[in-house]
Specification:
Layout: H1 3-20, E1 28-35, E2 40-47, H2 51-68, H3 74-83, E3 90-93, H4 100-111, E4 114-119, H5 136-147, E5 156-161, H6 169-179, E6 184-188, E7 208-211, H7 217-224, H8 227-234, H9 238-243, H10 245-258, H11 262-271, H12 274-295, H13 301-316, H14 324-327, H15 333-345, E8 349-355, E9 366-375, H16 378-384, H17 389-393, H18 403-415, E10 422-426, E11 433-440, E12 443-449, H19 458-466, E13 472-476, E14 481-483, E15 486-490, H20 494-499
Parallel strand pairs: 3-6, 3-7, 4-5, 5-6, 8-10, 12-13, 13-15
Antiparallel strand pairs: 1-2, 8-9, 10-11, 11-12, 14-15
C-alpha cells in the first residue's frame, strides 16, 4: 500500500475510534507527534472535537515532509563551516539542479533560529541591494525588510540564491568577510553563473567554498529509505552485503536509470515510473542547453553544443578517448579547446586525462592531449542517448550499452570524493588500457571497471606485473573478494570503499 493509502487507513481508524468514544469527560486531549527526521515527540493540546481535523493536517504534513526531504552528505560540511572560528561567507558551487538551494534552506532550518532567504534572479526589491555602497548595516536592514526576518548574528542564516544576478553581488562578500564576519552568509549559484561570471572579480581569499555534486548512489539509497543498506556499504560489511546482493544490484540498475539529480530521484520515489523520470531528465537537459545560450560567449555556443551532444557517442566507443572527429568531421583540437573547457568549468562534464607512467604524483605524468569526457550524471546520459529504460534495468549477457553507463557511474562516484586525483592509463601503439588510475595518499591504484560479473582483468594484471608491490582495484557486479594483488569491490560499494580506504 502507498504512503498516502496508509494515511487514509489511519484517518479511517481515527474516525472509527472517535465515533466509538463520543463521551469523553475532558474538553481537550494531548496529541503526541513523532517527527520522522527530528526523532522527537511533540505534545500539543487540542480540543477533542478537533482531533480528527488535527490528525488530517498532521498526517498530510508528515506525508509531504517525507516526500520532499532528502539527506545529503554535504550537510556535515555545512555544519563544520558554521562552527569555524575563521569562518568567511560561503559560496556553494555546483551545476544547476544538483540541490544547492534545497540543502542551504534545510541547513538553515536545522541549525539556525531564522533563515533570511533571497532569490536574486529577477527580484525587483533586491536588484539594487549593493548598487549604492557596501554599508553592512544598510544591507542587513534591507535584507531583513525584504525577507521579513530580524537579522541576528549567530542566530540567522542569510541565503542569497543566484547571487551572480545582482550587480556587485559577488563583490559584496568581501565586505561581509572584512566588516561583518559574525554573520552567517551563504550564497548559491550555478557554476554556469558563478565561475563563469563576467564583468566582476571573484572575491579570492575572502570566501569559503564547497562544491556540490548530484546525489551519489549511497545518497540515492538514503533517499529511498534504505539507510541501513547504505551504512553496510560505508562500513565495509561485505559478508552482510553479499547476502543482500540481489537488492543492491537492483538498486544500482535503478540508479543507472534515475541518476542523482534530486528532482529525478524525487519523481522516482513518488511515482516509480521510468517515463516520468525520463521527462524530468529531458527537462533538465533543456535547461542546461538554455543556460549554455545564456551564459556562454556567443562565438562558442555552437561549438559547446556540438561537444555536449557528442558525449554519448564518445562514451559508446570501446576506447572512450575523446575524438574530435566525432564532434564534427575534420574538427581540430584548437577549434574546440575553449568549448570543452567551458563545459568543464560549468560542472556539466568531468575531464579525465591520460597518464603514461604510474608514478607519484600522477599530476606530473599527465598527458593533456589525451582525455575522456564523462557527463555529470549517468541518468542524464541515459536521457541524452535515448537509451530504453529496460536496457538499464535488466542484466545483459553481452554488456551492450552498459559499459558506458558503468564507467560514467564510477567516474561520478570518484569525483564526489573531491580529494582523489583521477586519470586513466594507456600506452601508445598498445591495447593495454586502464579505465582509471587514482592517487590515494602515497598509493597509486590502477582501476578496472566491469559492467557485469566478468573477472577477467588482462590489462590490470599486466600493469601490476610491471609495477611490483602495486595493488589493483576492480569494480564489477561480483562480490567483494581479494585475489592476489587485486581487490574486487562490487560496483554499488565503490564510493564507500574508497572513502574509507587506507
Amino acid at each position: 500500500m502507498s504512503t498516502l493509502g496508509n494515511c487514509y487507513t489511519v484517518l479511517g481508524n481515527c474516525y472509527t475510534d472517535l465515533k466509538a468514544k463520543q463521551k469523553v469527560p475532558h474538553k481537550s486531549v494531548y496529541v503526541a507527534i513523532k517527527v520522522p527526521h527530528k526523532s522527537v515527540l511533540i505534545f500539543q493540546k487540542v480540543p477533542h472535537k478537533n482531533v480528527i481535523y488535527f490528525t488530517i493536517s498532521l498526517i498530510f504534513s508528515i506525508f509531504a515532509a517525507k516526500k520532499q526531504y532528502m539527506e545529503r552528505f554535504i550537510m556535515q560540511d555545512l555544519i563544520a563551516w558554521k562552527n569555524r572560528e575563521d569562518r568567511k561567507p560561503l559560496i556553494l558551487l555546483g551545476a544547476r539542479q544538483v540541490g544547492k538551494t534545497y540543502i542551504l534552506k534545510e541547513f538553515g532550518q536545522r541549525e539556525f533560529e531564522n533563515v533570511a532567504y533571497i532569490n536574486c534572479d529577477n527580484n525587483a526589491m533586491a536588484k539594487d541591494l549593493f548598487a549604492s555602497d557596501y554599508n553592512i548595516d544598510r544591507i542587513l536592514l534591507t535584507i531583513g525588510a525584504i525577507t521579513g526576518v530580524n537579522i541576528e548574528a549567530g542566530k540567522t542564516l542569510i541565503i542569497m540564491d543566484e547571487i551572480q544576478e545582482l550587480y556587485r553581488g559577488l563583490a559584496s562578500l568581501k565586505y561581509f568577510c572584512e566588516n561583518a564576519r559574525e554573520y552567517h552568509v551563504a550564497v548559491a549559484g550555478s557554476l554556469l553563473g558563478l565561475s563563469l561570471h563576467q564583468g566582476e572579480s571573484y572575491p579570492v581569499g575572502k570566501v569559503n567554498t564547497l562544491e556540490m555534486y548530484p546525489m551519489t548512489f549511497e545518497e540515492f539509497l538514503w533517499a529511498r529509505g534504505f539507510k541501513q543498506r547504505m551504512d553496510l556499504l560505508q562500513h565495509g560489511m561485505w559478508d552482510v552485503v553479499k547476502s543482500l546482493r540481489t537488492l543492491y544490484i537492483q538498486h544500482l540498475r535503478e540508479y543507472y536509470l534515475v541518476g542523482g539529480m534530486p528532482e529525478a530521484v524525487n519523481k522516482f520515489i513518488e511515482t516509480n515510473d521510468a517515463n516520468a523520470v525520463r521527462e524530468v531528465q529531458e527537462e533538465i537537459i533543456r535547461v542546461y542547453e538554455k543556460d549554455i545560450s545564456k551564459h556562454a560567449p556567443k562565438e562558442q555556443v555552437v561549438r559547446i553544443n556540438q561537444v555536449w551532444n557528442s558525449i554519448p557517442s564518445q562514451l559508446a566507443k570501446e576506447n572512450k578517448k575523446f575524438i574530435y572527429g566525432i564532434v564534427k568531421q575534420g574538427a581540430r583540437a584548437k577549434d574546440y579547446e575553449l568549448a570543452i573547457q567551458w563545459l568543464i568549468d560549468a560542472g556539466l562534464v568531468y575531464k579525465i586525462s591520460r597518464v603514461k607512467t604510474l608514478g607519484l604524483p600522477l599530476k606530473i605524468h599527465e598527458d593533456i592531449s589525451a582525455f575522456k569526457l564523462y557527463l555529470l550524471d549517468c541518468g542524464l546520459l541515459g536521457a541524452m542517448s535515448k537509451t530504453p529504460p529496460a536496457m538499464l534495468l535488466l542484466p545483459s549477457n553481452d554488456n551492450t550499452g552498459k559499459g558506458d553507463f558503468t564507467e560514467n557511474f564510477v567516474c561520478c562516484q570518484l569525483e564526489s570524493l573531491r580529494q582523489i586525483p583521477i586519470y586513466y592509463y594507456s600506452k601508445e601503439n598498445s591495447q593495454l588500457e586502464l579505465d582509471f588510475v587514482i592517487q590515494v595518499g602515497m598509493q597509486v591504484i590502477p582501476v578496472e571497471v566491469k559492467a557485469e560479473e566478468n573477472l577477467q582483468s588482462k590489462s590490470l594484471k599486466a600493469t601490476i606485473a610491471k609495477y611490483p608491490g602495486m595493488k589493483g582495484l576492480r569494480f564489477s557486479m561480483s562480490d567483494y573478494r581479494e585475489q592476489d594483488d587485486i581487490t574486487n569491490v562490487p560496483l554499488y560499494g565503490a564510493r564507500g570503499y574508497l572513502e574509507t580506504y587506507n
